[in-house]
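Minutes, project huddle
Topic: does the predicted pose make sense with magnesium ion bound?
PN asked that the exact inputs be recorded in the minutes so nobody has to dig through chat later. Recorded below.
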Amino acid sequence: MVWFGLVWAGETIEEILTHEYTEAEVEEYFGELKSLLYKKKYQVGDILELDVGRFMVTGKEAEGVEGVVYGVVSLSNPEEPLVLKFPHVGEHSLAYHGEPYIKARKLIQKLNHDNIIKLKNSDSRFIIMEKADGSLYDLIMGLARGRAVRFTEAEAKYFFKMASKDVVAGMEYLHARGINFLDLKFQNVVYFIKNNRVRFELIDLGTSEYMEAPNPDELFNKLLPFAQGLAKSAAMLGFPELEEDLNTRIYSARNLEELKSALGIDGEPSEQEQILEMVVVEKIKRVTDSGGSWSSGGACP
Ligand SMILES: Nc1ncnc2c1ncn2[C@@H]1O[C@H](COP(=O)(O)OP(=O)(O)O)[C@@H](O)[C@H]1O
Ligand SMILES: [Mg+2]
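Predicted holo structure (tokens), as shared on screen:
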């Protein structure tokens, strides 16, 4: 293996996921930029000097166990909303939070799929991504709470189908490469609305393990709780019959192929569904615009 300054050249997915980082390696990865991480709170308007340019903080999106996600814009292209993820430096050392962070970053740099988040700046040591319109969690919560935008049952059904189709495609892609993503949940699925279409992408790959010989049953077991979560959301959105129908189908599925068919994602969209898609995307836009999401666009504390 060749050490190119800060990046391991030619690292395989197996090497990325199984390597145990020493504290020195983590310190070296972040180098002088680590001083940025020790400042715990950034405010809207703060300027961050990164190796790939200067960024202004526009808001705090989320703060999790492993890191903090800020909304930012690059000063060289302030029109484009981005997010920047930092590993946490607090109670634990940089090495503690840095390792999963570095793994996640190296992993997304290597992957290329429509339903997996992409990096915006490949030569930065930070995770800089395009800012999504929100997470699947935000969206479902926004729909459940909001009175302004309501789906019909047919629209809700199609919405679940769209989300599960993208999530399953992303998960299959990861799985085929030996990546066992351990943290599939609504908060780790974000959505982008573009050209009157909605696309869901998986984020937060830091919690992944390497699988020697991936098998479809493992993927089935991982997708099952996700599918059950969608069924529960149907009830939250006011469609108990849809929940029951989804559950009946999901629980009778014995393998991945049957689960895909239970979710209705094994065929081409019908003509009626193409019309539904326009309506569903329009409503998702309205929930997003009405501040239906919990976290996006929030100001820093
Ligand atoms: N690219 C993105 N665009 C918009 N919001 C994002 C993006 N990435 C992360 N977020 C928001 O930040 C939250 C935390 O990000 P995540 O990468 O899952 O970090 P954590 O390790 O804290 O779970 C997500 O649930 C989502 O709400
Ligand atoms: Mg997460």
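Observations noted during the meeting:
- Residues 1-6, 292-301 have pLDDT under 50 and may be disordered.
- The domain at 134-289 is CATH 1.10.510 (Transferase(Phosphotransferase); domain 1).
No decisions taken; revisit at the next huddle.
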